[in-house]
Amino acid sequence: MPAASSYSLQTCSSSARSIASKTTQPLALTDRHQRCRSLSFSSQLHRLDLSIKIADSRRELDSNRLNAVVRAQSSLGTMEVDISLSPRVNSVKPSKTVAITDQATALVQAGVPVIRLAAGEPDFDTPAVIAEAGINAIREGYTRYTPNAGTSELRSAICRKLKEENGLSYTPDQILVSNGAKQSILQAVIAVCSPGDEVLIPAPFWVSYPEMARLADATPVILPTQISDNFLLDPKLLESKLTEKSRLLILCSPSNPTGSVYPRKLLEEIAGIVARHPRLLVLSDEIYEHIIYSPATHTSFAALHDMWERTLTVNGFSKAFAMTGWRLGYLAGPKHFVSACNKIQSQFTSGASSISQKAAVAALEMGYAGGEAVATMVKAFRERRDFLVKGFRELDGVKISEPQGAFYLFLDFSSYYGAEIDGFGKIDGSESLCRYLLDKAQVALVPGEAFGDDTCIRISYAASLSTLQAAFERIKKALVTLRPPVPV
Ligand SMILES: Cc1ncc(COP(=O)(O)O)c(C=O)c1O
């Protein structure tokens, strides 16, 4: 077997992982679709010792497969292991937020008082009535498999919610309950997209959308938006990007990471375009629906004229009900599509947790839009938003679009790019600015690059007002030493 490179590893298996990751360079390969892939061997190597040899990948280019073979010593002698990964997995980008999150965690563990404003989850506990329902479910032995699509009790409750709050009519067989909205979205993308189809995604986007399109062998088509338009999609841009391959448009309102809320009129304009393109479906991610600040109001895309048949609505319990760890989301749509997702789920995870489903029924019984408990959380989020918006508006060189929902602020700090810092280097984008703010201000934020907009940084205000006040003062102090090189 021809060897392109060989590497030495120590024999101690516990150290193999870290040594492998230090000594092996990612092997960049290009397949016939010209996608760039990289292989990382570290996770496969903890049980493989001694030297590894990587097979010459060039011989595999014609077969559209990546092969990388390692030689390993085992108790039976030398053996070869093909550690290549599927092209599908290799096409998925690792999360760019991981590096800064890991760095922040390492600092906290080392005793550095880092304020973490990177999380995408409410800082509130699950309301007691929901938690009690979960506890009772366990006590009452409600701990067995449920139907794959979810219990009929929960699906009926979801139908009532969609009718009363969203003006949408669904029957329980048009609802699929999953382990979080993330699973609902991935299954929907896989169910409707064929290889080569295009998935249209307005940017800034939730980090998972493009990667989910790639996992479905579809092509993400990014539609940039402007901060001056409150990061809302320009219908003309959408129209100009539609081709016969366009299969799915993903809308997220209120949006992660921008907090923008699509006004009904704009959604109607988009619906008019969708109506003219019969192949195009819309996935409407409404998971932040209840975290919305009046006068903004939420419109479900499926409720628009002629859009019910064309829309896959995704929602869940993680955000509004502070239930991230309960892992529960759902899809509502025409039966044909929901059944397809149900089939995927039946061979994948089966039904969601029986305990969480009981808790979710209690959540939906808390009243319109989550009742008092959710209103209290939204009030707190609003106060925090107002505090941060006011503060950052007064800072030189920061551009802002006031969020109307969710619990994120997506701020344009690009006027600070280009600054040179002694002992740190050049700030050349959102990632280096986040590293600088982590280093200097000890505040962990997420670079906008991860969301498809390098001019911005995402601040999650799912933290107490006093924590946000401290974080703001630290950021302000750190920015003052970076004179904005470009006036805004
Ligand atoms: C826009 C958006 N959609 C979907 C999800 C997934 O939520 P979950 O899987 O927790 O229900 C998230 C979580 O961060 C999100 O921000």
UniProtKB/TrEMBL annotation:
PANTHER family xref list: ASPARTATE AMINOTRANSFERASE (PTHR46383:SF1)
Keywords, sorted A to Z: Aminotransferase, Pyridoxal phosphate, Transferase
One Pfam family this sequence matches: Aminotran_1_2
InterPro entries: Aminotransferase_I/II_large, AspAT/PAT-like, NHTrfase_class1_PyrdxlP-BS, PyrdxlP-dep_Trfase, PyrdxlP-dep_Trfase_major, PyrdxlP-dep_Trfase_small
Signal peptide: none
Organism name: Coffea arabica (Arabian coffee)
Known cofactor(s): pyridoxal 5'-phosphate
Similarity annotation: Belongs to the class-I pyridoxal-phosphate-dependent aminotransferase family.
Pathway: Amino-acid biosynthesis; L-phenylalanine biosynthesis; L-arogenate from prephenate (L-Asp route): step 1/1; Amino-acid biosynthesis; L-phenylalanine biosynthesis; L-arogenate from prephenate (L-Glu route): step 1/1
Residues covered by the Aminotransferase class I/classII large domain: 113-475
Encoding gene per record: LOC113699957
GO BP terms in the entry: aromatic amino acid family biosynthetic process, prephenate pathway
CDD domains, sorted: AAT_like
Gene Ontology MF: a single term: aspartate-prephenate aminotransferase activity
Annotated protein name in UniProt: Bifunctional aspartate aminotransferase and glutamate/aspartate-prephenate aminotransferase
